[in-house]
Write the structure tokens for this entry.
Amino acid sequence: MNVASRSLLWCAVAFLEQGRVIDRLSRALTASAIVSILIALAIAAHPPRVLVGVASVAAFAGFAEMYFAVRVGFDASLFRRVAEAEGPPEFAATDAALEAMGLMAPAKCGRPAEARIAGARRLFRFQVLALAAQVLSLLIGATIVLASP
């Protein structure tokens, strides 16, 4: 790898770290959805199914977002480690460690930085989509609840 690869890794780290902002918002929405479910179940003998359903969808989307946030954060940390290492950036030691831990399939070892960053960007997009599913489900639920008599 060369200096351009190191710059590419730094840019990837800066981009992937934005996943923290998404995760904070999602965690607040997930907590709100869970609290809404618990309140509905505690107060009403027959809680509105729409409210519980919509809040459940938002909570499940929130849990999916948390999974992707962990993966995106992990990739950002690994990219930072490789970018900060002395000498030219290389993934051989990181690949060996990940393979030994069972976190990387042997077939994926030795990939170029560009392929790794493309995979991390895909995870970031899934994280954003999970947040979008949360927001959309809550907006739909709020619309239905407000429109009902």
Q: What stands out?
A: The chain has one domain: 3-147. The chain has a mean pLDDT of 91. Residues 3-147 form one domain.
